[in-house]
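hiii so um. not sure if this is the right channel but i have a protein structure encoded as tokens and i wanna go backwards to a sequence. like what aa goes where. can anyone help
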């Protein structure tokens, strides 16, 4: 293929990007989006603060704009994210216990119902495990509602949209370490007990301090062996030139080596679109030109 999306499709995969809906009026941005990508993730527009700014009052305007754009252009949609400790609306801060648990479940049910039939994969729960060596859950208002909050969210999502693949998504789980071991144990437990989970997302935000792990492929493979799809969900890699290009190729090759790695999403289009405060972690430069990392990615697909 001559584009990322077409080449990935030849391998039975998608190649997606995070999209900021307010950039859909930028012709350079949309030109690259429509040419290169066959999957999109809302960068912020489907998060809890965006979709439920007041309790039980839902706003789907911007999320719907992205879904419409995707449908008009034959792109899949990854839903991101139903339950997360960050980017919650302010009203959640006055809730705890059963009230917060029920508010979270009401949120999951409403959003997944609104988008029923339109989402390929949902990040049902995002970033619920702690960094470091504890292997523990991250402390959060949601975690304090009880350890079963994650499975409760997955069950609510399945009931609301039985056709969407339901994913757990996290960062610093890309290689084998205490955090990814803890996620692995959770997925194994969910599979054993029939808790509905279909996929695990590996954010894959890489830089000099957190490079592409040497056991990236092996880690994707051990999760896939549990009977879930694996997806690279928020890829960006700090750097430039040949080193960066080689790192992107390594990521693509790892995914292609794992049969159940069914898609890759980069977290933005141009370097200037990146959430990172500095650096050049994406495939297109700030003018929209293809970088060496683009070419190596395309060639690896
Ligand atoms: C980031 C967005 O890119 C920013 O625009 C926003 O200000 C903060 O969130 N992990 C995730 C994503 O799961 O939702 C985050 O996105 C990046 C880290």
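sure thing!! here u go:
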């Amino acid at each position: 293929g001559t584009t990322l999306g077409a080449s990935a499709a030849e391998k039975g995969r998608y190649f997606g990007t995070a999209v900021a809906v307010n950039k859909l009026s930028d012709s350079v941005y949309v030109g690259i989006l429509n040419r290169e990508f066959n999957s999109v993730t809302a960068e912020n527009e489907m998060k809890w603060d965006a979709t439920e700014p007041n309790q039980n009052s839902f706003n789907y305007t911007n999320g719907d704009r992205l879904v419409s754009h995707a449908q008009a252009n034959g792109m899949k949609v990854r839903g991101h994210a139903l339950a997360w400790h960050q980017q919650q609306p302010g009203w959640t801060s006055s809730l705890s216990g059963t009230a917060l648990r029920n508010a979270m479940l009401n949120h999951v049910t409403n959003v997944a119902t609104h988008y029923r039939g339109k989402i390929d994969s949902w990040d049902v729960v995002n970033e619920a495990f702690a960094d470091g060596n504890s292997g523990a859950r991250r402390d959060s208002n949601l975690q304090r509602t009880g350890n079963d909050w994650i499975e409760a969210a997955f069950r609510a999502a399945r009931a609301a949209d039985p056709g969407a693949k339901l994913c757990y998504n996290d960062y610093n789980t890309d290689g084998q370490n205490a955090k990814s071991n803890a996620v692995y144990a959770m997925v194994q437990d969910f599979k054993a007990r029939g808790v509905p989970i279909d996929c695990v997302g590996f954010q894959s935000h890489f830089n000099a301090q957190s490079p592409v792990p040497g056991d990236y492929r092996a880690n994707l493979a051990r999760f896939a062996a549990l009977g879930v799809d694996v997806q690279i969900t928020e890829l960006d890699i700090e750097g430039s030139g040949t080193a960066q290009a080689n790192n992107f190729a390594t990521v693509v090759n790892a995914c292609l080596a794992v049969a159940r790695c069914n898609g890759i999403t980069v977290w933005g289009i141009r370097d200037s679109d990146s959430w990172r405060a500095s650096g050049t972690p994406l495939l297109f430069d700030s003018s929209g030109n293809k970088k060496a990392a683009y070419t190596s990615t395309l060639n690896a697909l």
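oh and Residues 43-44, 126, 203, 234, 275 surround XIL (CB under 6 Å).
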